[in-house]
């Protein structure tokens, strides 16, 4: 005959939990004391940025849920942009499709009405990203630019030029459908963007083209149009012969690059 059930021994478990709590508390306290002042300074800087931010250009990326957008963070902001002015909008193509664009202007063009030349970049893999909480805490304007747009920041500051980065049709935040590599519709869109640029009050009517890899080839196609506003083209690592340079270099199938690139292409076509 079995006796009454023995009570469970919970002492070991409780002691372990208490020990972990005692060990973690000093670490959390040290972290708070060290990181607290930096965080408070950052929040104060961010508040100043958003409070004093220019309100001339509202955010135009309407593909985001309006209730989740910061009302001021998407507007032009000086902090983190090397003294340039930034805003984004949609540029309408001749078939009424909307192309998402980031615009960077030198201070003189924004405040003094100075006319400047423009560098156009056609982005195949998303021109920039808007971050959500908690990552947005670490960027005053809640916007993370890719390598190309970082180049644009520096160009605007040092070269006194405007920089326009556009998601090509069917990618990033732009509307439409991406049908094939460097298709005719994409080339026509670039000319529509150039027409929009030279119609702006800050433009002096001169446009340069810049791109890297896919974007470089897109720049070459645009330059081949012979548009009167195009004055130069800087094309870094373009594809002269796609078959020989990418698909089958030296007659060997480049299986690794093709499969990886296809995965990146599939991801970049998702409107996030």
Describe this structure in words.
The radius of gyration is 25 Å and the shape is globular. It has helices at 11-51, 107-111, 147-159, 184-198, 214-223, 242-247, 255-268, and strands at 85-92, 98-105, 116-123, 128-130, 143-145, 162-167, 203-212, 230-236. A six-stranded mixed β-sheet has the order 1-2-6-3-7-8, sandwiched between helices. Strands 4-5 form a two-stranded antiparallel ribbon. The chain has seven helices and eight strands. Mean pLDDT is 75; it is low at 53-80. The longest helix is centred in the first third of the chain and has 41 residues, at 11-51. It is an alpha/beta fold and 272 residues long.
Number of helices: 7
Low-confidence stretches: 53-80
Distance between the termini: 67 Å
Tell me the structural class: alpha/beta
Helical fraction equals 25-40%
State Rg.
25 Å
Strand content: 15-25%
Give the tags.
globular; alpha/beta; 8 strands; 7 helices; 272 residues; two-stranded antiparallel ribbon; 6-stranded mixed beta sheet
SSE blueprint and pairings:
Layout (H helix, E strand, L loop, with lengths): L10 H41 L33 E8 L5 E8 L1 H5 L4 E8 L4 E3 L12 E3 L1 H13 L2 E6 L16 H15 L4 E10 L1 H10 L6 E7 L5 H6 L7 H14 L4
Parallel strand pairs: 3-6, 3-7, 7-8
Antiparallel strand pairs: 1-2, 2-6, 4-5
